[in-house]
Amino acid sequence: MNYGITNFDNLLYSFLTVFQCMTLEGWFKIMTLVIDAHNMFVPPVYFVLAITICHYLFYNLTIAVMVTNL
To answer: In this structure, which of 24, 36, 44, 57 has its CB flanked by the most CB atoms within 10 Å?
Structure first.
């Protein structure tokens, strides 16, 4: 998938994969690959929590920038 770029083998690719999941681009496919590789319970919790927390932080950052500019 993605010519081997989407993986957790080293730190750079891990950050790139997590960033891709945070933008909601193909996160479900990555999550299913992680579920197939490890176990069935931890990856869905990790991905849902990571996406929720990052989107909450991005929304707050956007609101803070808009308020300071107004």
So the answer is: 44
- CA–CA separation, 18 and 15 (whole Å): 5
Question: Quick check: pTM over 0.85?
Answer: no
The letter for the amino acid at 27 is: W
When pLDDT is cut at 50, 70 and 90, the band that residue 1 belongs to is low
Helix locations, the chain, DSSP H: 11-22, 27-37, 42-69
| pLDDT digit string, tens, across residues 22-48 | 888 888 888 888 888 888 888 889 899
Q: How big is the CA angle at 24 (ends 32 and 11), to the nearest 5 degrees? A: 70
Enclosing domain of residue 64:
2-69
Give the number of domains in the chain. 1
